[in-house]
Amino acid sequence: MTKFSSVYICQQCGFKASQFLGKCPECGTWNSLVETVEESSARQLQGRQSSVKRATMQRATIINLSEIEKQHYPRISTNLEEFDRCLGGGIVPGSVVLVSGDPGVGKSTLLLQMALGLNYSVGVGFSDPNVKGGKTPPLQSNVLYIAGEESAQQIKIRADRIDPKASLAILNETDVDIIGEVIRGSKDSKESWGLVIIDSIQTMETMDLSGVAGSVGQVRECSHRLQKLAKSLHIPIFIVGHITKDGSIAGPKTLEHLVDVVLSLEGESTSNFRILRATKNRFGSTDEIGIFEMGEKGMMEVQNPSKIFLEEKVNAPGSAVVATLNGMRPILVEIQALVTKSFLPIPKRVGSGIDNNRLQLLVAVLQSRMKLPVFDKDIFVNVTGGLKVIEPACDLGICMAIISSLKDQEISNKTVLVGEVGLLGEVRGVRGIDKRSAEAKKLGFTKVISSENAKNLTEAIRLACGLPREALR
User: Fold this and answer.
1) Are residues 276 and 374 in the same domain?
2) Among 43, 65, 87, which residue terminates a domain?
3) Which of 357, 348, 403, 356 is nearest to 379 (CA)?
């Protein structure tokens, strides 16, 4: 039997201590000692000797990329098109996916809905030319839901709202070693599992460590063991992770490096819309987003988000429509601006759904290059629908919304604005202008203002509002 012991190791200098210390006596860093599992010294010495022996018996081999055959990953469909989009076409067998989000945003509901209606499709996302018929073989369809936070009865109540006739295997357990035995197929459980959901990683623990569940050491060690389990058994594992008050994932940063995919579920408490965003994906793009609407029967997919975000648009000064591009998917959203006289020593610049630093920069460009009198104005900019836009292609729409509100002049009806604004007041081109234009025409917009027909802000203002440069002063 391999014997394990737990020690506290400083993450800055590597100092080891037998008990927790608030301050590292070696480097003086506070709260840097993390509990870590270590094997016994005899075991370590034996392992070093065996590794040296293997190194002397075998020579390292160099592989050329041209000699490696390209492999197509078979994908597992979640039966949720928006979910598959964020994953890059479906679930890759053996992958570890981390789903994070604010409390109550719907992480458990989304994964439970996926588990209840999961259908392991054949070759979803990719076809394999090396397989006869161009299809990959079917995969195991049993799903195991590890509930560390809720009881099986609580999950049953939530599952009845989604599908009263659905069935799902539930395991109420927090010991990661016992969970590993169940997944491997111990004597007590002869089932073979095709997908495992861990809800949540902050409730998991191992008896090899003395720390409480949710501590840095416990989260890191449990995640490492689950990752080894997924790779060895070729079973995809979904892990639910909590976030801290500053928006980062709770636990060590190695948790995000360890997993293959990191998904973030975002949404305002006042809105029913939820946005699933991939911040890391080893098997696909990180630009894709999935949009859901929280309803009585779980998460409903939003197939046409542009229409949803624009259905309550009102033609008024301060309103502009921009075309964003998330991965390969164009989405039209409305940007609203309000410019009012400030009675504060330093006027406010507040942006909701956009980067506040970017808003400060664009206001400075308008004041310096366009000579707009905004130095004594409070400026508020909001992206409707709770969507966050981070790409520079929305710069032109933000500027036009501010100018429209300042001059109380409506932007021409059925107009979409696309373009990055430089520090010199020029309008720069952006990627995917053809896809953005096609999406705008599909929704009835007839004019697209971009770098192709407006080289600077002056020309864009003339096309959007019909105002000459003299009218801005």
Assistant:
1) no
2) 65
3) 348
- pLDDT 10s digit of each residue in the chain, 473 long? 455 567 888 877 778 888 888 888 888 888 878 877 765 544 544 555 555 555 555 566 788 888 888 777 678 888 888 899 899 888 998 999 999 988 888 899 999 999 988 744 433 333 343 444 444 444 445 889 999 989 989 999 888 888 888 788 899 999 999 999 998 875 455 567 889 999 989 999 988 887 788 888 888 889 999 999 999 988 999 999 988 776 777 767 778 889 999 999 988 777 788 889 888 999 888 878 888 988 888 888 888 888 888 888 888 999 999 999 877 788 999 999 999 999 999 999 999 989 999 999 999 999 999 999 999 999 999 998 878 888 899 999 999 999 999 999 999 888 999 999 999 999 999 998 999 999 999 888 999 999 998 899 988 988 888 766 665 55
Dihedral pair phi/psi, residue 440, rounded to 5°: -65, -45
Q: Are residues 166 and 222 in the same domain?
A: yes
* Helices and strands in the chain: count of H runs, count of E runs: 12, 20
Question: pTM for the full model?
Answer: 0.74
Q: Which residues of 391-427 are buried (b: 16+ CB within 10 A; e: fewer)?
A: eebbbbbbbbbbbbbbbebbbeeebbbbbbbeeebbb
Which tokens is 282 given?
Answer: 């080893």
Domain harbouring 464, CATH code: 3.30.230.10
